[in-house]
Every structure is written in structure tokens, then in C-alpha cells.
Amino acid sequence: MTADTWTAAQGPTADYVIPLPPVPAVPVQGCDALFPVRRIYCVGRNYAAHAVEMGGDPDKEAPFFFQKNPDNLVLDGIFPYPVASDDVHHEVELVVALGTGGKNIPVGSALEHVFGYAVGLDMTRRDLQGEAKKAGRPWETGKAFESSAPCGPIAPATEIGHPAAGTITLAVNGDVRQSGDLNQLTWKVPEIIAHLSALFTLAPGDLIFTGTPSGVGPVVRGDELLGQIEGVGELRVTVV
Ligand code: MN
């Protein structure tokens, strides 16, 4: 089979040798239609106070990225405690949903590509991430596991604008554990999009988890997590 026939075989009428995997899709506030997810990018250490608690430098370093898988999304508020870890941490984050993409997007026009924003959790098997860091290995086992990306409904930018400030908090069973402000993001949303688009071809359906404020910590089964971002929305998750 040539590349041409392979390409021609794609499409709604193509036959597949196994069932077509479902396309993960996030609800949109005030709308019955869903936001289909293509890729999930995440920014590491993007609040100075969190960089310090992770043993890093509070000074501005170049942004760095890792990925989760679209099928890691949790959209029903249930986070099953994962296998292979005894130290799973919550990281509440502003999630950016791209409506359009591109390469080498300038900072000045980056926000034009944003469809909307959501509250997300970058759930992390901290023990496995720590081992990977120590060994200089990739982070996937710590970051891209089943159900590692709970995400709330997307608030369209046409409704809420582009929040550059506002409190971001995560409470566990009513106790606030993480607290910060979007104005403390080391790399702002337009800068994140510009940097990412210089490394990858961004496209409609991409989500970007923009990093977490300080106060990350472990969860246990039975915990009720409440992530809130002023002007964006909230996300409730139960650990089971
Ligand atoms: Mn994170």
C-alpha cells in the first residue's frame, strides 16, 4: 500500500480493522456542542513558588513542555486512584483550548487562536515522576497515565474574555491547599502559545495545561477536590 492509497482510505466511509477509537470531547458552557480534543500539552514549573517547592529556581527559565494523552481526560468528575503509585498529587491548572492552530505564532496574535478556558487537574504520580527526573528519563509514567487529566467545561473566550489575572485555588475536602493568581504565571498564555508553536504545529482541538501554583500534595481515596479559577469556572473531582 502506498502513502497515497493509505491517505485515500481515511475518512468517514473507510473500513477499519479494529473499532475506531472514540474522540475525547469536553463540554462547552452554554452550548450543546462539544470541544473535540486532539492533543494535550502541559507546561512545567510555570509559577515561581511551585518551582521552588519542586526544588527548582524561582528565576524565569525557558518554558518546557510535556504531554498527556487525550484519552487521559476525566470528564465525569471521578478520578480512580491509579496503579503503580503511592504518592499521587493534585495540580490545579488553567487550561487553554485552541480553536485554531499554526506554526511560529507571534505573541501579539496568539490569543486569537484561543477558543476558551477551563479548570483542569494535572494529576501526577509524584513518586514515578521523581524516579524519572533522577534517572534523566521521560515523565510519561508520572504524568500521562489513565485518568490523569480531569477537566471542567470550557468557558468560551467570547463569553469570558482572556483572563490574565484572578485567583486559582484547589481545596481538598474543604481545606484550601493550593492558592495563587493567574497574574503569577511565569510564562503568560500568549507566550506559551508562541513558544509551543515554534516547537510543534498547533491545531484546533489542542489543550494546554498552563502549570500549577504552589501547594501541591497527595490525594487519597475518598477525597473531594474542588478547583476554582476566578472568571473561568470550577471543577469537582472525587478520588475513588
Ligand atoms: Mn502541572
Keywords:
single chain; 240 residues; Fumarylacetoacetate hydrolase, domain 2; 6 helices; 18 strands; 32% strand
Question: Which structural class is indicated by helix and strand composition?
Answer: alpha+beta
Radius of gyration: 18 Å
What is the count of structural domains?
1
Strand order of the largest sheet: 4-3-15-8-9-12
Shape, per Cα inertia axes: globular
Order of helices and strands: HEEEHEEEEEEEHHEEHEEHEEEE
CATH class term = Alpha Beta
> How many strands appear in the DSSP assignment?
18
User: What is the name of the CATH superfamily?
Assistant: Fumarylacetoacetase-like, C-terminal domain
Q: Hey, roughly how much beta strand do the residues contain?
A: 25-35%
Bound molecules: manganese (II) ion
Q: What is the distance, rounded to the nearest whole angstrom, between the alpha carbons of the first and last residues?
A: 46 Å
